[in-house]
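Supplementary Note 2. Why include the ligand at all?

Several targets in our set were suspected to adopt different conformations when bound, so apo predictions alone were not considered sufficient. For every target with a known small-molecule partner we therefore ran a joint prediction. The input for NAP is given below.
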Amino acid sequence: MTKPLSVGLAGLGTVGAGVIGMLRTNADLVAARAGRRIEVTAVSARNRDRDRGVSLDGLRWFDDPVAMASDPALDVVVEVMGGSDGPARALVEAALSAGKPVVTANKALVAVHGAALAGLAERTGTTLAFEAAVAGGIPVIKALREGLAGNRISRVAGILNGTCNYILTVMREQKRDFADVLADAQRLGYAEADPAFDIDGIDAAHKLAILAALAFGRPVAFDAVHVEGIRSVSALDIAFAAELGYRIKLLGIARQTEDGVAARVHPCMVPESAPIARVDGVFNAVVAEGDFVGRVMLEGRGAGAGPTASAVVADLVDIARDRVTPVWGAGSGDLSNAPSVSMDSHFGAYYLRLMVMDRPGVIADVTAALRDAGVSLGSMLQRGRAPGEAVPVVLVTHETRESAMRSALAHISALDSVIETPALIRIEPA
Ligand SMILES: NC(=O)c1ccc[n+]([C@@H]2O[C@H](COP(=O)([O-])OP(=O)(O)OC[C@H]3O[C@@H](n4cnc5c(N)ncnc54)[C@H](OP(=O)(O)O)[C@@H]3O)[C@@H](O)[C@H]2O)c1
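The joint prediction is reproduced in token form.
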């Protein structure tokens, strides 16, 4: 058998320890598939003394992960430290500059610097692989870039953040409020102590930017993704959604339109009957629509040591076999320059929930604001009557432009009888 592939592993946290564990447990099977053994021979982390649950005996230790890039004994570098800049970026740039292939799980790095890093890899004739960066154990990068390579993809969408999906699932099942469920999720280790990246939609936006680049063959454009998180989703809206036949999911959706690529992350109401509406808890799912294949949906675990290691090791097997494709599916000269389209031109139906004072003329004022903005009302729900008190009123619009809806919303929010910031949730067809 050919000489083993010697791996330098930077980061020994959840993912790093998972990679060592998988390569040891499945060593023979991986060797057969890779055509040679794959061995971690060097590691780097901050704290040399920390117990990682895996033995580091016989492995070389690097205090400075960036030094791995120029180590001639290493064939490939795996970066699982995290962060879009700092040592992760420095290591990846140094390794690619030296012509050493890199495997990373770091979606922030790939979403923000992926275009420049791909250019660097192209110039030095090496590769950057990042299967683990999107949807953890689901092989969605390979599916889009290789499995669906013959298709013109029109839309890619998914549940891309397990923490948000877990919180929304528990809110629905247990009829509890966001803050309460988030606190529980933090106790259980499903949400970080600082949960902002997850619950504000940034993590999902990183992943969507990567998927959109692959699906539409264009340079990755994180800044062009419209991002909203789940902080303002309430138990009340989840209950109204159920009454209307919907579930609320944080989706990342990218679409190829006539004007360019539209990419957005926000809470959506999806029909209860849609397969993606049934993906609950920490699970992720990705749906792609191609002109020849039709609709493809992949579902699985989007995080955790095992699923993420599974994706990292798959990339290592490709590198061991010299199976290398361009980072974004096509060479940088062959990528499209389709522009990004702004959220203002989004076209869809909306759920709008208001808390209004129950008094004559209120509904007339609200519907007048919608009419003046050119928004057509599909249906309205009002529960109970409480003259002189606040009651929820739910409006569902027909499909309309985002800009029109925003203009109506500004007028409605300013009405004296509307006593809370209205809840606006976009309705996404199945
Ligand atoms: N966890 C998941 O389920 C998951 C899933 C998909 C993708 N990812 C991505 O995978 C990457 C790693 O995630 P993780 O959950 O494994 O993180 P983690 O548990 O926090 O581990 C990070 C590791 O990087 C090391 N590190 C940090 N800064 C370093 C530095 N300056 N020099 C050397 N080592 C340094 C840490 O060292 P010490 O241990 O000594 O502090 C730690 O071992 C991130 O990009 C993340 O987004 C994670």
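The CA atoms of residues 9 and 43 lie 5 Å apart. The radius of gyration is 24 Å. Comparable summaries for the other entries are listed in the accompanying table.
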